[in-house]
Amino acid sequence: MTAKDDDLVLDGNAAAGTLAEIYGDDMTTVLAECASCGKVDHVAGLVAYVHAPGIVLRCTACSTVMIRIVQTPKRTFVDVRGKRIPPPSTKT
Amino acid sequence: MKRTLEWQIATVKALRVETVDVKTLTLALPDWTAHRPGQHYDVRLTAEDGYSSQRSYSVASEPERMGEIDITVERIGDGEVSPYLDDTVVVGDRFEVRGPIGGYFVWDKSIDGPLLLVAGGSGIVPLMAMLRHRAVAGISDPARLLYSSRTYEQIIYGPELEDLAKKNGLTVSYTLTRTQPAGWKGYARRIDDAMLKEVSAPLGRGALAYICGPTALVEVAADGLERVGLRAERIRTERFGPSGP
Asked: For chain B, how far is it from start to end, CA to CA, in angstroms?
């Protein structure tokens, strides 16, 4: 990674506005678990790349892409394949 | 009902030069709502051809100032937004903002107990909102700020911090990592565990810590505060800029 790319690194706090736009509430205090290594962080703490045409949130431990958001004039794409989604609870 | 996050048109009401690379903009907001210190606004600039660019800026002012906010902007050389906000913008200019945003890196008077703030460079901005709010709200629980800058000239809000440190149990410590003026009595090195221990010790291990700055500084300070005895869940961070040391 070049020094110039490094300058663009932020954290999940910087994605708070876009996440709130999508989910209707602040998401930065929510915990997210990396699907690859299991590290759990607040969304606020994830490593964020926000200066490309889109937002990428990566795991702080293993750099796996956890959340990707791309907004076009007509729709928003959210990819959370890198974030572990717990299986539905068996409790009733 | 919960307030939805809408774009609104901010008008630049005042400009203040803080340092050679840093300027504060006072923005009048038609749909102002009180922020929690530490929150930010998104700023969106749109060119005539429709190309738009968006950045987040922490609120520097206290929420008691109704109808307006201050944002403090550091000029990033080839950025798309900061050169405009730092060089081109004039009083009366209008652009889109939305906020306040963020529920993680926030502190207000409802949170009791000793407060430890660690800032690197323009990372002081959200912490300044906390300190201004703390002063206006008359909070007297002990608070300490450790502020790392490269040079004396790059310290943002210097005179105001001096004033704030005279009241309400606030202690401000500086470290200048690159050059120091003659007779400098503060620290003169990068933040390390010994420094963190000295600054945090009077607050005890129950202190609540907020760290904001470049990634490398945030990681050193967050790990260091854990090593000197603070609990990890009492340390909140906001990082920007280079991730390398």
From this structure: 45
